[in-house]
Amino acid sequence: MRDAYHEELDSISEGLVEMARLVGSAIGRATTAILDADLKLAENVIAADEKVDDLHRDLEARAIALLARQQPVATDLRIVVTSLRMSADLERSGDLAQHVAKLARLRFPERAVPRDLHATILEMGQLAQRLMAKAGEVIITKDVDLALQLEQDDDAMDLLHRALFQHLMDDRWKHGIETAVDVTLLGRYYERFADHAVSVAKRVVYLVTGEHADEIASSTAVEGA
Question: How far apart are CA 153 and CA 26, in angstroms?
Answer without folding.
Answer: 20
